[in-house]
Amino acid sequence: MNSRNRMYTPRPRLRRNVPFFSIILVIIIFVFATQLIQNEPDQNQSGEFLGILQVSFINVGQGDSILIKNPQNEFMLIDTGSGDQYDILKSYLDNQNVEKFEYVIFTHPHADHIGSADKIVKEYDIECLIMPRATNTTNTFLRLLGEIEAKNMVITTAEARTVGKEYIFGDAKFLIVAPVKDEYENINNYSVVIKMFYGDNSFVFTGDMEKNSEDDIIDKFGGGISADVLKIGHHGSSTSSSQKFLNLVKPQIAVILSDGGKSYGHPHADALERITNTGAQILRSDLHGTIVISSNGQTLDIKTEITP
Ligand SMILES: [Zn+2]
After folding, report:
1. What mean pLDDT do residues 149-156 have?
2. Euclidean distance between CA atoms 256 and 86, whole angstroms
3. Which of 24, 90, 99, 234 is deepest in the core (most CB within 10 A)?
4. String of DSSP letters for 275-303
5. Above 60 in pLDDT, residue 245?
6. What per-residue confidence (pLDDT) applies to 114?
7. How far apart, in Å, are the Cα atoms of 111 and each of 185, 193, 209, 234, 282?
């Protein structure tokens, strides 16, 4: 009996094992396939992007601060506004549950752009910090360099040789557009300018670049600088936003960040006239407060803090 049993036992075991292994195999294939699907970009069968790219132009008065969130819930910050606006910036970042940044760009070393840059570097993890090869002797800039050194961070410089370089930001990506040259007289023209792409939509962020840098971008990119949304250069100053540049960008929406002229007379009437000539919808932080433009990869949605 024992020997018979031993002889016969393998068969039923085998029969039992076949469905068992089949089920395991099906589970493995299912898990693997699910992971493959999850690793693909967040698009449906027609290639439409399903997530939202959210761009917040935070109202920090006379200064720039722009927060970008991609569909992967990763964050990017362009400038911080002045030091006295830090509470406004910090509460906005807290409301958006920002814990770290994939990218931070300090466009150029002027206080209305890097006023709280030292605090941002100190308080947040930053994967990639992008700055131009421009210096300043102000305490604000020296404090920033001190914090960068204290955290042993590497600065990724944006300069002539890096123009055209692409960075992946989840389902979005951006391109370094300027500074095209390594020598400018005015610090504003060293401003790091990027073009952000998400599906069919694009945004150009300009820092405080003026006409010289705009002309270099025109020579380098021509119509390639066109974008749906343009952050107007230098708070709508008359020395930025040449008609030629604006006509090439052809924005649907132009965003002006300023305190409405209290500090420096920004935006300037001449620049406003040129921007109006493009037919773009003009959104101003001094009139609309914080401006949030969301893209689903095809269309743009605008939300403003104030309805003027
Ligand atoms: Zn500025």
Report:
1. 98
2. 20
3. 234
4. HHHTTPEEEEHHHH-SEEEEE-SS-EEEE
5. yes
6. 98
7. 18, 18, 15, 13, 25
CB 205 within 8 A of CB 78: yes
Find the 241 Cα to ligand 1 centroid distance in Å. Answer: 14
CA of 191 to the centre of ligand 1 (A): 10
Ligand 1 center from residue 113 Cα (angstroms): 6
Dist. CA 13 → ligand 1 center (Å):
77
Residue 134's nearest CA partner among 78, 181, 101 is: 181
Gap from CA of 232 to ligand 1 centroid (Å): 11
pLDDT(22) > 50: yes
Taking the centre of ligand 1 as the mean of its atom positions, its distance from the CA of residue 25, in whole angstroms, is: 60
The percent of residues in the chain predicted with pLDDT above 90, rounded, is: 81
Task: Write down the pLDDT at residue 48.
Answer: 62
The gap from C-alpha 100 to its chain's centroid, in whole angstroms, comes to 14
What separation in Å is there between the alpha carbon of 40 and the centre of ligand 1? 39
For the residues 134-150, what does the mean pLDDT come to?
97
What is the chain's mean pLDDT, rounded?
Answer: 90
**What pLDDT digit, counting tens, does each position of 48-98 carry?**
667 999 999 999 999 999 999 999 999 999 999 999 999 999 999 999 999
Q: 53-304 has which CATH code?
A: 3.60.15.10
Distance between Cα 64 and ligand 1 center (Å):
7
CA distances from 112 to 117, 189, 228 (A): 10, 15, 25
Global pTM reads 0.85
Q: Determine the distance separating the centroid of ligand 1 and the alpha carbon of 157, expressed in angstroms.
A: 19
Distance 254 CA to ligand 1 centre (A): 16
pLDDT at residue 261, as a whole number = 82
Q: How many CB atoms lie within 10 A of CB 105?
A: 28
User: What are the boundaries of each domain within the chain?
Assistant: 2-39, 53-304
How far is ligand 1, taken at its centre, from the CA of residue 302, in Å? 24
